[in-house]
Amino acid sequence: MRNQQVKILLVVAALAALAIIVPNTNSFLILLATRVLAFAILVMSVDLLLGYTGLPSLGQAAYLAVGAYLTAILATKYQFGLGYDFWLVVVGGILLGAALAAVFGLLAIRATGVYFLMITLALGQCVWGLAYRWNSLTNGDNGINLRQRPQFGIDLANEVTFFYLVLGFFVVSLLLLYTLVRSPFGLSLAGIRERELRMRILGYNTWLHKYIAFIIAGAFGGLSGVLWAHTAGIVSPVNVELAFSVDALLMAVLGGSGTLVGGVIGAFIVFGLREYLSTLVPWWQYVLGGVYVLTILYLPTGLMGIPERIRQRRARTGNREEEKEIAPVTP
Amino acid sequence: MAITLLRPFGPLLLGGVVGFGLTAPSNAAEELRIGYVAPTTGIFAQVGKDMVDGFQMYLDDVKGDFGGAKVKFIVEDEQAKPDTAVTRAKKLILQDKVHMLVGGLLASSGYALAPVSTADKTVYVVPVSAADDLTQRDLSKFPYMVRTGWSSSQPSHPFGQWACEQGYKKIVAIGADYAFGYEVVGGFQRAFEACGGQIIQKIWPPLGAKDFGPYIPTIKAEADAIFSLMVGPMSLQFPKQLAASGNKKPVIGGGTSYDEFVLPSMGDEVIGHVSALQYSAALENPKNEAFVKKYRTKYGKVPSYYSETNYTTAQMIHEVIKANNGNFPGLEAFVKQLAAIKVDSIRGPVSIDEMRNPVQNIYIKKVEKKKMFGYDKDELWNTVIKTYANVNQFGQFNKDEFLKTPVYNRDYPPCKFCN
Questions:
Q1: What is the mean pLDDT of residues B335-345?
Q2: pLDDT score, position A273
Q3: Torsion on CA atoms A95, A97, A103, A104, rounded to nearest 10
């Protein structure tokens, strides 16, 4: 339990540091940090499925996309969501994400493992197809530009203000998800991940558990989409592409699935390498590739697994020393 | 010790000396920071390389000196994704404090970058991205944007007329299924039907299609010709598969179906195909000959229109800065002066119309296998067979009426003669 408290303190300290340091850097870094936080909400939603329920989703970008398209279409076609009604758009994005997940979940939850991966991929591509081809609504591959950010007492066009808003949403999402995964419901999800059959024999309706987790993940995806639309200023089919979903999955795995904050660290690393290192050196792709390969080879539990591995190694060497001490006595 | 103490004042002293010594060009050592956005990784990396090389070659030609201003050329990778283009543009504006943004390949990148220029009050010069509406129906949203390249349907308007003159009555159009495809095909359809022709079928294979097996057999037999609009690898596959199907009809197409980016990789099946664009590497004027030879020596390939338009864009920016004695004249003044420019470029005379899109020659080109510019091998070249001089983006149409109609899309112009 003490261990858990230390972890929570560390996360709080990191968030506080982020809130203090970022606004004092240059405005490009503020913009990048805002993007990372908006995307990190999607990564956490992936982690809820992958790390806690054992469902690797390859179509999570679809939920971000519906949230983002909703925001963009309302803002450009109806001038809606640019004042206090922004909060309605937030609610709308969450509900739309959840509704889409509720439909897709009916199809996807019946499968597990690789089959789940394939079905979510296919469903994600359906949304991509819509975004790409439904020209009158989505403007096809040209995408939709958002010309302004909402203004309600505070002006979100200011990068620092907007950063704090996204940070706020991120912290609330993190708290909600953290509470969720530690609740009895979250624990039964972990039970399903470990051994679904046993959970079913114990009398749990595992299908319903997974279905609800899927919908919750979709809701957070929708929220992240609303924020993403205003962060990036443009919504296009690129946001629904397979690569976008893969990014989210890779970030979760890189940071360590089943930890929530691991995915956030993953997001910071990937965005940092891709968006920042790439402005400095041309060989950034090798670094990114190297990080992926090394993580998979040596850290299958992700970066968040490092302390645990160190502890295990220490325990192991400790044991060995004890064995050595005992060894001479035995013969 | 004394030296150390003096060090902070060194530049000041030096500045004083220079100021007194050389009074003529004030601020002559000003740095002009040009932020360039192009895809340098991903599937469009090679096109991006042509773009950057074209711009860089001009800078090398003038030794990075624009009328006294030292040019700092900063290239950022947009990966042909609008999202990334925005991030990179922001980086260039916020971190590098560039005087102007240049670049963007796909229409989507152009549409992503133009609003950034408006929001951050930065010049955006568009050498490649060809989306019609940037300089048509959406122009008022982008006051700091000037296009130096082309609009997608610009070459199609004279080309449609040319098709009528060839005596074609019925044409089948087959084009990549995205905005650029709709605009090139749409412009051709409007012009061709305005002079009495009929588009009797429109086929839209998806962008990136490599197998045209499902589409080629559906081409109507009564067509007099086939109009194709392909991009990238599609350009290579379509003529091959069309020839293999035993096609005897004449094939004509949008510029990117046969531009110099794809032409060297094509086979003899494209000989005789006709396309329209504002540039051909086979243009017979001394400027172009020198450009092609120099480019080929430097980069080992024939320049494409991507290279040429960027070379010319650099030239235009140079002209404006030179006219201001090596100073950046400020946002609005720069846009105004760039939009008023007239240059005698490699692709012929270019000026900018009141909607900030170039007025330029459109060349009707036929693919021929021949020797050019003293190269000793037979190669494929886009021989110019007809020149339409000083074509603007509306071509033969009335600007006001043109702007009242919707932008070309999958359903506009409607296919009246289909079925």
A1: 93
A2: 87
A3: -160
